[in-house]
Design brief:
The structure is a single chain. The protein is mainly α and 130 residues long. It contains 6 helices and 3 strands; from the N terminus they run αβαααβαβα. The longest helix is centred in the C-terminal third of the chain and has 19 residues. It is globular and about 50 Å long.
């Protein structure tokens, strides 16, 4: 599928909205696996399907989505300090944080999502994806 400038997929809009909601709880940002788990918890934006995090993690799908969000200026990323990962006995994590542009988009998406929830649109309605 060819992407047009400024076009965002439903999953990208959902990721931005969730990151906006999590910004105060996670000021350091969110890493990809954590984000996939947050998407699983999101029952109203994505059909409740246990395979979503696995699909997002397979073949680097979540990383491709985050890279696209970075290209449009909605997120920025940074690697955690090597000492933290070494102490935890795991590889380093890349943390993603919303930019000003991303925060503005996330706020707009959150308002739209709340409005759709208020009117109780069915989950299968494509308008509920933000």
């Amino acid at each position: 599928m060819r992407r047009y400038a400024g076009l965002m997929f439903d999953i990208e809009r959902t990721i931005l909205r969730i990151m906006g909601e999590q910004a105060e709880l996670r000021p350091h940002g969110v890493h990809a696996y954590e984000l996939a788990d947050l998407l699983l918890e999101e029952k109203k934006a994505i059909p409740a399907d246990e395979t979503i995090p696995k699909v997002l993690r397979a073949n680097g799908t979540i990383y491709k989505l985050m890279h696209r969000l970075g290209r449009i200026g909605a997120v920025t990323s940074s690697w955690e300090e090597p000492e933290v990962a070494l102490a935890a006995g795991r590889p380093r994590r890349r943390y993603y944080v919303l930019t000003e542009n991303g925060r503005a988009r996330a706020a707009n998406l959150r308002k739209r999502h709340e409005r759709h929830l208020r009117f109780r649109l069915p989950e299968t309605d494509p308008r509920t994806f933000g």
